[in-house]
Every structure is written in C-alpha cells, then in structure tokens.
Amino acid sequence: MKFSENWLRTFVNPPLATRELADVLSLSGLDVEQVDADGDDWVLTTKPTPNRGDCLSLIGVAREVAAVTGAPLIQPETKNVRVTATDRLTVTLDAPQACPRYCGRLVKGVNAGAASPEWMTSRLARSGIRPISALVDITNYVMLELGQPLHAFDAAKLSGGIRVRQAKAGEKLTLLNGMEPALTPAFLVIADDAKAVALAGIMGGLDTSVSDATRDVFLESAFFSPEAIAGKARLLNFSSDSSYRFERGVDFAGTLAALERATQLVTEICGGSVGPVTEAKTTLPSRDPVRLRLARVERLLGIKLDGIQAGDILRRLRFEFAPAGGEFRVTPPSYRFDIAIEEDLVEELARIHGYDRIPATMPVAPATMLPAPESRRDIASLRGLLVARDYQEVVTYSFVDAAWESDFAGNAAPVALANPIASQMSVMRSTLAGGLVNCLVHNVSRKQSRARLFEVGRCFMPLSSNDYKQPVRIGGLSYGDARHEQWGIKGRPGDFYDIKGDVEALLAPLPVVFRALDHTALHPGKAAAIEVGGVAVGWIGELHPRWQRKYDLPLPPVLFELEYEAIARRGLPVYKETSKFPLVRRDIAAEVEEGVTYQDVLAALLQGRPPIVTEIGLFDIYRGTGVEKGKKSLAFMVLLQDTRKTLTDAEVESAVSQLRRILQQQFNAKLR
Which end of the chain is more exposed for a tag (fewer CB within 10 A), N or C? Predict the structure, then answer.
C-alpha cells in the first residue's frame, strides 16, 4: 500500500522525521519497502502481512502509529448528510452468510462531470491510483482513507431493486476491465431485478458504471465475509483493490460511516439531492472476548508486565477489556480479524512494548541424560553401520509420483494429497524405493557409474478413512561396481549377494533368514523376503528388468528395505565359556531335490543338532556329472567342540550320524 506522509499526518502527527516514522511502521509489522520524495511530500510504500487487513487504510496505519508512539489519533470527520429526497432502492440479501450487511443510498441530480479537487487527485496519485472521474475518485479516496471499498452505480441503468445472491451457472457479466468471466454459483454477485450488475467484493459491471452523463447515482457500501471473497479474483486471473481488502477482512462496524463519508464528498464536489440510507443486515461476525493471563505473558515473553502496563498497551490499541485478578477479558475491535487466541494478544503486547526492550536471556533447563538401553538399537547407530559400509545417505520427499507407487509397491490406491505442491508429487509414499531409484537416475544421467545410497524415512499406509500407519523404514540401493575402481582389485559389478551381506551385517546379531519372494518391483528369482524370528521385516532384490528399461538404467540396481521397529530390538550379550579343547571338522554332502532350499535344510540341521555341534555352514552347491537331473548336491561344514574335554572319534561320528539321519528322514537325501 502506498500513501503520502502529509495525508497520514492529518490523522496522527507524532514528532518524528520521515525515516523515524518508517521505522515505527516497520516495528508494527507493516514493512516499509520504500520511501520516495514527491515534491513537498514523501510517499511510503508498506507491505502489511496478510493478517493485518486493518492496515490497508490511512486510518488503520494511523491507529498503529498512535499505539506505538502514544501520539493522539485524529478521527476523520464524518458528518451525517442531511436527507433531502425520499427516493430509495430496495435491498434483499439472498446470501446472508456471504453478505451480512449491505448499505446503499440514492443521490439524485449530481454533476458527474465535475472536476475532482486537486488535493484529492494528488493524494490518489501518490497512492498509486489514477484519477478517473469525480464519482470514481471519491469511492477510491474513501477506500484508502477508511479501508471500506465502495461502488457507484448509475441508477438510471438499474432495473428495480438490489439483490445480493450467488451467481447462476453460466450467467454473463462484463466487468469494468472488459473481462466476461463464466460465472458459477461459487461467485457472489450484486444483481437488479433483471441481471447481475457487479461481482460482489471484486469489481463492478461495465453496463451500470457511472460516466459524465450520470445524473442519479446509487452508492454501495457493504461487508462481504472474507470466506466468500477469498481466492475468487485469483480464479479469474486478476486482482482488485476491493478483493484484496475484503478477503483479508474489512471493518463491518464502519460500513455506514464510510457511506456517509462518501455521500458527504459527493454532495460537496458533485452536488445532488441525498436520499435515505437503505440497510439490510443479518448476523454480523461475533467478537468473542479472548482470555489474557499475565502469567502466560511472562512465560512466553520472558518479561514481567503488570496489570497497569498491560492495560495501558490494550488501551492504546483501542481494545475493550475487563481486568479480573491476574488476567483480562479482551474484546477485539471489529476491524481486527487477526485477534482470536491468547497468543495473538501476547504478540500485540510484545510489539507495542518493544521487541528491543525484551532482554536476551539464556534458557535454563536441566540437562538429564536419558537412558539408552543396550537391547535397542537407535537410528543413528544403523545409519553409522551403513555409512561404514560405503553407503551415502539421501533425503527425498515423502510426496511422490503415483506411478512410483504402482511400479515399486504395486499400490493402486496410495494416500492422495488434497492439495499437492506439484502434479508429480500427488501421493504419499508407501515405500522408499521410488525416491532411491529417482535419485539414482539423477546421478546416472550425470555420468556417475557407481552409487550406494540409503534413506531413513517414514512411509504412509491407510488404516481407515481418517487414520494412517506411518512406519519408519530403512531403504538402500547399490548400483555399479562392488568396489571403487582401483589398481589392486579387479573390478566387477555388485550383485545380490554383496547387498545381502550388507543387510546381514546391518541386522547382526539377529538371526536372519532369506526366503524367495515375488515382488512387483524386483526381478523374479533374484528377490527375497527378509525374516527375523519367523517374522518378515523387509525385502531385498534386483530391480525388475521392465523398470530398469523404463527408468533408463544401463545396469540393474539391487535394493533392500527394512522396518525399523522390527529390527530395533536385539538380545543382550550373554557370556559363553571359551573352550580350551580343539575343534573337529567334518564335511557332509547330500544330494537333494532341486526344489529343496538351503535355508530349510540348515534350519532342520540346527534344530536337531547334538550339543557338541557348534556351527554348521554351507560351502558348496554342485550340479552336474554324478548328480541326477533335477537334483543338487549341498556340502556342509560341521564344527564340533566340547568345553570340558577333547572329543573322541566315537562322539564325533555319533553326532555326524545324527545329522545325516535328519537329512535322510526329512529331505530324502542321498548321502555322498
């Protein structure tokens, strides 16, 4: 908002230089962007925050200056104009919630061609408004002065009375700027008995606009609720001074005063006979008292204000209040739409008291060490393990493309955002895979041939219509060579088993089992579910070839994803005696059906092993000459040891025989 300093000083005149006045306005949150000289005057350009619609007028800015400086406020003189005619137009409110108050009056026999006075045109010009004609200049002047947008209709072009209603679907209206928007019932219009004549709170219609030939004028001053006007001008791809004010909130108690002020200026400049005011009014917005506790003020601001100081500030702000002990019941004025809760009042006290008068004090709080149970691993330790294994952490958006959810999670109904920030970020992720692959694509397109990435973040799945599951997950991706290129090691592409080793290291000492998995994002036969204690905690696998082609990746990356809560708990270390006696190793080779998995065989051996068997591990798988077609040979290493004595050959052979019987009985194995 632009205005001249001389005009402002007709309402409040503190003993301040122009630059000091600009500093006062900045302290009030009006952010003076520019101060320019204009002849014998200064022009100040302010940018109030959206919550301060009351400061979009000279009287509003003057109230702020008076509150901060203590200078007396000079209220504009608004005299009730003597009524000299009886003609009036009827006003009907068909949309009372959108327009709870509408005032209007006829002024007949005006000289619309009269010249606007120089003091008015100069103030308008310095405020960035081009003078047009006396009637239009008057409505703009009162809007800048009091903050109430007005409109002047040529009464001869109106058919019957005024009706405030919602627009009809497809209704036509040519605005003053020449636009012909296609109206819908979402828009509020001012209409006569025949048609819509203005877009309420935004812009008047061209067909009923005033001109130099106008003789009878109908002046409109109304209050339109911010909810009814907000965003409507943007739907039409333009803005107006009226919509800018109405969508932020206009003083609904000053509607009639603004009409009287405009009528006064019309009769002084253009003459005419004044008719009575026609007012239609329903329930206006309530100004409910807000509780203000001095103890709360001290807690939030860190300074102690007594009742006298707080009352003085509230009085300077022109708030009505009733003190009661250590608190106040404060009723905000009709022009302050931004005062709704106690914190709003605390902010006002801080602003007027002066931010520079609030001392900077260091916070005092106990620094208590929180317990860190050894049975639970925190996120930081898991991050450290991955970083130590050559992974680099990335952070991606939780908002993702719906196509990613379909590709990487098979999720046809992800959690959709009501107001996405971009079309490709329209849903909430249920897997970290999409963000990791997108990050990889970004790096590969910039000639990066190797990447090892991980992310820790929340995923989102619906539990019901208004409740969501939000687990923390750990996702990882490996692409390119298993190791950095160097002279001492021959390069080779990383594969499933490299990343499987990383996952096992991450989960150690938990007992991890990998089982074949069919996953929409992963290559068939190169994917596995990760289980801990018989419970699935994640998955691992190579990216499916179709997604590799779709995302233009020369090599297939290997991905994994784990549920943090499922792997956070771990058993405490337990002391185990170290044997002084030698280990004994025996190897067992068994021929089994191709469909028998190593994991099932190992689980059976571990479950049925004798106490002296300390470790069983697979060291070879053979298919070929000497093995029947459709079968494979599994070779296991068996380590045996006793903590009390050296094992005898008989004890060793008995234990190995017990393992062989398990293979024969449970898997019909042929021992080799």
Answer: C
